[in-house]
Amino acid sequence: xxxxxxxxxxxxxxxxxxxxxxxxxxxxxxxxxxxxxxxxxxxxxxxxxxxxxxxxxxxxxxxx
Length: 64
Description:
Layout: H1 6-9, H2 14-33, E1 36-38, E2 46-48, E3 54-56, E4 60-62
Antiparallel strand pairs: 1-4, 2-3
């Protein structure tokens, strides 16, 4: 939905996209520390929650 809104789409600068990538990597690090693996990390499972935050859809596998 965010990408369909022209005003939000133009706000997605390289620095903002880099921040999104950092959020995703931090989330994956947290999951690994909890003994979980995201079973389907792909762009289609990253949700743009707001103009400054992304969320990852949950497909977890416990490895502990």
